[in-house]
Design brief:
The protein has helices spanning about 1-20, 25-35, 40-65, 70-90, 100-120, 135-150, 155-165, 170-195, 205-225, 230-255, 260-290, 290-299. By secondary structure, it is mostly helical. It has one domain (about 1-290). Helix 2 (about 25-35) packs antiparallel against helix 3 (about 40-65) and helix 5 packs parallel to helix 11. The radius of gyration is 20 Å and the shape is globular. This is Probable membrane transporter protein. It comes from Streptomyces fuscus. InterPro entries: TM_pro_TauE-like (IPR002781), TSUP/Inactive_protease-like (IPR051598).
């Protein structure tokens, strides 16, 4: 019973982060299952089966709060589903050991870019509102879907920073659209695992525990992301990407340097970046608000 409660709480926490920052449900949940001794394919299958329900609830909540661009959902979600099915099928036969550090290095670079861009420049205005082209979204969805299925997570870490870096969508709509399109990815990946593995290694009770926790958190996260200022949200997302991928690179590379000081320094820099973004946001908002004297003079 304690294991099921732990899994439900992990699902709740993972969905709260995923729904508000656009990533981390699969990474967090899969990491926990692997630590419990589950084999990679079964862990990824368990998480994706739970995600069918959590992403459906999350997408509905994001749509309710106006966080979804349906054109982006269709253009990234359909190729993402194809990539997820292929990735799920390949996971039983292929090793991703070589791809993991390369992917993490690319994502680390994107994370540093996103965090620095939103921290020091705020939300990019020049490209905001311009349509994202299909020739950009389709390959992005295909790659992200494949990595998501083979790595137990990757749809958000790949899709969210790439769309944020484009500067053409508000952060809340990036997160809402990525979360909503993930439903197609979860369904396709689950089908791929069921075709390749059947139900081998998948515990239905564990799936249910993850699902229940995620369903509770999904509407809360969709509401939260609508309230957070875009500049602060961008800095927060960038920090998550950096921390996650530095951890992966240190683990895969077998670095001899102590990891704790590295995490402490990164967390301090991340905290400083978010704090700077909050101050800058307040200054921008204060500058936009008319002063009392101006209002009085106008009257």
């Amino acid at each position: 019973m304690r294991t099921l409660i732990l899994l439900a709480l992990a699902g709740l926490g993972a969905q709260l982060v995923d729904g508000s920052l656009g990533m981390a449900y699969g990474v967090t949940s899969t990491t926990l299952l692997l630590a419990m001794g589950t084999n990679p394919a079964a862990a990824s299958a368990t998480v994706h089966l739970a995600e069918i329900g959590t992403t459906l609830m999350s997408g509905a909540a994001h749509w309710r709060f106006g966080n979804v661009d349906w054109r982006v959902v269709a253009r990234i979600g359909v190729p993402g589903a194809v990539g997820a099915f292929l990735g799920a099928t390949a996971l039983s036969h292929l090793s991703t050991d070589l791809a993991e550090p390369l992917m993490s290095a690319i994502l680390l670079g994107l994370g540093v870019y996103v965090m620095s861009r939103f921290t020091f420049r705020g939300l990019p205005k020049g490209q905001l509102g311009k349509p994202l082209r299909k020739r950009f979204l389709s390959p992005l969805g295909l790659v992200a879907g494949f990595l998501d299925a083979t790595g137990g997570g990757g749809w958000g870490p790949v899709g969210t920073p790439a769309l944020l870096a484009s500067g053409r969508m508000e952060p809340r709509k990036v997160i809402g659209s990525v979360d909503t399109s993930e439903f197609l990815v979860a369904v396709a990946a689950s089908l791929g695992f069921l075709v390749s593995l059947g139900s081998q290694g998948v515990d239905a009770v564990w799936v249910l525990a993850f699902l229940l926790g995620g369903l509770v958190a999904a509407p809360v996260a969709a509401w939260l992301v609508r309230l957070l200022p875009p500049r602060v949200l961008g800095s927060a997302v960038g920090g998550v990407i950096v921390l996650t991928n530095v951890r992966t690179l240190l683990r895969v590379g077998g670095a001899s340097v102590p990891t704790t000081p590295v995490y402490v320094v990164l967390c301090a820099l991340w905290t400083a970046a978010v704090a700077y973004s909050i101050r800058a946001h307040r200054a921008e908002r204060a500058a936009q608000e008319p002063s009392v004297e101006t209002v009085t003079a106008g009257v």
